[in-house]
Every structure is written in structure tokens, then in C-alpha cells.
Amino acid sequence: MSSLFVRTxxxxxxxxxxxxxxxxxxxxxxxxxxxxxxxxxxxxxxVLAKVEAVVREEMDAIGAQExxxxxxxxxxxxxxxxxxxxxxxxxxxxxxxxxxxMLLAPTHEEMFTLLVGDTYSSYKELPLTLYQxxxxxxxxxxxxxxxxxxxxxIMKDAYSFDLDDTGLEKSYMAQxxxxxxxxxxxxxxxxxxxxxxxxxxxxxxxxFLFPCDIGEDTFVRSPGGYAANVEAVATLPPPPPDPAAVAxxxxxxxxxxxxxxxxxxLVDVANxxxxxxxxxxxxxxxTLKNVVVTYVHPGGExxxxxxxxxxxxxxxxxRLEAVAFPAEVEQATEDDLKAHPExxxxxxxxxxxxxxxxxxxxxxxxxxxxxxxxxxxxxTAWVTGANEPGRHVFGLVAGRDFTADGVLxxxxxxxxxxxxxxxxxxxxxxxxxxxxxxxxxxxxxxxxDLKVLDANGKAVTVTMGSYGVGVTRVLACIAEKYSDDAxxxxxxxxxPAHVHVVATGKDQAVFDEAERLAAAxxxxxxxxxxxxxxxxxxxxxxADSEILGVPYVLVVGRGxxxxxxxxxxxxxxxxxxxxxxxxxxxxxxxxxSALS
Length: 596
Ligand code: ATP
Ligand code: MG
What we know:
CATH architecture of the largest domain: 2-Layer Sandwich
Largest sheet: 9 strands, mixed
CATH topology of the largest domain: BirA Bifunctional Protein, domain 2
Bound molecules: adenosine-5'-triphosphate, magnesium ion
Mean pLDDT: 94
CATH class of the largest domain: Alpha Beta
Structural class: alpha+beta
């Protein structure tokens, strides 16, 4: 500690919202260089190396081979797959001195695909899985929480190459198993959830989420074992209503409903002035609300889209973003709305939307695209806007009176909603995405023409998987879980040292004994940090040891005169006094068994 490049901070960094961010900065593991961009200091780098080592060992154990790509790449491969544009503002783009477009890679599917294509040509060379542990760049809209969402971060990304789907399934499951072992070894709980494929394309995909209240991902679980990212939940549509009952439905009527621009006001007026025939009260679930959003397409073109959903549901922006991709979703601006005066705010109804609006003079559709929530099945009747201020239409029947351009399942998923596989009511929880595995299929291989000759000499397109672990995010999750009010409390597997020897007092004999014990621990194969600062008070040394979070603290101080030292366990606060050599033996045993 007398020479280590570290300075613990007594104050929380101003921008720190979460424990991991606060303690990693305060303990001198990382330093902010710019928003979402961090410098690694000696202690931080030691922890990072240990997390990487676990990831590397488990990748090597399943036969994946390590390579290392540059982060700075040419535009062309990303152009070929469409991602130069599709990635939108998240992609760091730049130009070299000759004016060539370059990028800082957000992920490397393209480069791995090209590399394998350049190198392999026969089915005999497959299967193959390559990986790297490498720096990624994404110009995140909201970098936050320190390492949890950075603009520069480290990812382990692996890519599998197989001849067919059976091979892909095997490679996928091998990665899945490796991920389970990685997170087990790192002491992080995880839930494996079904995910949307989003920006990657492809078919099957699962995320590993670390359950945690500060997580940005919401996931659902059912008692019967269904688990999915909320973005990937497919709503169970209600059974279609009885055709005879639908045929008997009365025609829709328009009523004056003054000052009812919200669902709440509409329900009140409906109950007061237009009560139902069956005696039951109108509820928000009887109304069809039409939510307007703007899609911003990769080329920058803005397009209004309207989504109709039961009035008791809210639009879930993340669910919409997942399906809107590569378009980004924004709130509709006044300018966006100017082009469509038929949309009367608060009173929008299906009749001016999508296929219901008829056609312009040249036969071209001029109405905005209109989508419906899966609950709006044909034959259901709704109270919805009549496209005039202060008027609503009652009994408008889906399929009879209006249709849409399609179904968009983007309303929020609620606690208690049925699981799509019938396995019971859903429970909601939050988590942090620490890993993601994708069965990509042939999207990248096709775009970049990755083929090999099969046993009959025929060229076949290779099928791929891609698998990411957020290494720096994982480190932050570990810090999030293994920290308390006083600082970090690392598990032995990733701690920057195993034992923190703290020499207190002014007595030279204490310092000499502390050095001797530290050397004995090192001889036994342990990693030791020794606080040998001669003029620092015991209080400061103890506070520092708590912030730094080395799992075991060996205090050499006053007790030495009576022949004892103290072993403290950082995470539990447990303390035992032992003779110095017994302390070394005890610590050696404890650390070895934790590591085995
Ligand atoms: P998110 O939904 O959190 O933005 P993503 O789905 O875009 O993540 P992937 O493309 O699946 O991320 O990347 C693989 C892994 O890299 C993620 O599972 C996550 O652990 C990590 N990761 C992604 N973005 C970041 C980031 N901005 N900072 C730190 N780690 C990240
Ligand atoms: Mg992901």
C-alpha cells in the first residue's frame, strides 16, 4: 500500500447511482475518462484479469479457440450486412485521412464470418468455434451506472460455424453450458430467458440475466418454468368470440362525449351517459386506445405509426423498440402530426387509420400504418375515438367495422398475465443482461457468402451462432452483489488479492512481523496486499481495507505482544485471534478451499 497506485475516495462520485459504480470508483479500481468510458487502475485491472481468466478457461474447455480482432474496422463488411446503417446512432463512425469510412466495432459477426470464409473451404474443417475477449464500442443513448452500460466495454464474443442445424444446436448448447459454469464460478445467479433476436437477426436466442432491482431488463417467470425477457413475451390472444353472438352485435353508434381526451374521462362519461345494456359498468378494458408513435428509419425518414390496444394497457417502449428495429421509436412531434390532420388528439379512431381509410386519388395509401394488440381479436366490440373532438364511437367491432395492417404485441406485460405456454400466471422481476446466446443461422454467412463444399462437392452456406458475455458488465454485477455500506467485499475467485495484511501502530516489530507473515502467505501461493504505510492511522487503514474489499484481512498490531494476530473475514465481519503461524495456516487452507 505504500507504493501501490491507488487513492481511495471519501466521497461518492457525483454521478454514481448504483453501488458498483460508487465503490469501484471510490476504491480506486476505475476512473471515469468520459461518459461511459473508464480507465482501469492497478487493482481494477487485477480483478478484470481474473474475470477474463474464468471466461477464457470455460471457452477453452469447450474447444473454442481464441483470436483477437481490431476494434477499428472498415465499413464494407458492415455495409454488406446492412448494419452500417441499421446500427443507427449507436455506431461510432469515423474516417481515415483518405476519407475512407471506418467504424469502432460494436460486435464482430462480419469479421469472423469473413475470416472463416477466407480460411476454410471444406465441410471437413467444421465445426469451428472462435472467440475473443475484446473492447467494443457503442455510442449508447444513455450510458449509465459506471461499467454497467458503457460506451467502451469489454465483451467475450464467440462465433460458431456449422454445416447444419444439428451442428448449430450442439455448438449453441456447448456455449450455454459454458455460460452456466462461468457465472457459477463467478458467484453470480442467473436466469436464462427467451429473448428477441433484435439487431442480430436469426432464430433462437436466450439471455442470461442477473436478477437485480437496478437492472434495466424486465423479465417474467411462471410457476411452470416459463422465463422470458419481457420483450420476447408473446401475448396469448383470447379465444375468438362465438360467431352467432358476433352476428347479433348491434351496429356501432357515435355519441357525444365532451371533454374525454383520456381513457379515464371517457369511462366516466360512458358510465354516466351511455350505460351498458347488460348492467355491467364500462371499464378501461372496453376501450380501444390508439397510440401514435414515430418510427425513425435508418435513413432518417420519419413515419407515423398508430397502435390500437385495450385502454387499460400501456405501450411498452422497449417491447416496441425490439419489434420496430431497425427503425428507432420516438414520440410523435407536432411536425410529424401536421402531415396527418385526420388524427384528432384524444379522439383517434380506426376509421382514418391503415386499411380502413380508403385510398388516395392515385390508389396509393395515404393513411398512417395501423397495428392492433393481439387482444383485439375479430368479433370483439370497442369504445374508441370517432375522429372528431368530443366524440366516441361505441360498439365498433374488430373485423366487421375495422381492420389493421397487422398485429403488434407491444403493450406492457403485467404481473398475473397468463404465460404464453399455459404454465401459469407471470411474475415480473428485473435483471441485468450478462450474457446472450444466438442461433444466428445463415444471415451473416449469406450476406458475406460464407460457403464450404459438402461431402458431395456441393457448395453449402455455413450456419452460425454468436455468443456474448459482457465481461466488464459482469465485473460490475459482481461488485453490485458483493459490496455493503463500507465498500467492496470480493469473492476469493476474483479478488485483487486474497489476503490484506494490515500492520498497525508504530512498533517496528509489528511491521517486521507483518512482512514475515505476508511473505509466508505468498510462499504458500496466496496473493497478498500489505498495508505497510508507516504513518497512516489504524482507522484509515481499516477503512481502506473495507473499501478495497480483499476477502481476508490479517491484522498485525497490539495483540502481537501477547502472541496473537487477528483474521477478519471482510464479507461477514467475522474475527478470530490466532497465533501468527496458525493464522497463516488457517488463511492458506481457507483460500485454497475457496479456489478449488
Ligand atoms: P443491452 O440490451 O443491455 O443494450 P445488448 O443486447 O445490446 O445489451 P449484446 O449485443 O447482446 O448486448 O451484447 C452481448 C453482451 O455484451 C450483453 O449481454 C451485455 O452483457 C454486454 N453489453 C452490451 N452492451 C453493453 C454496454 N453498453 N456496456 C457493457 N456491457 C454491454
Ligand atoms: Mg443482448
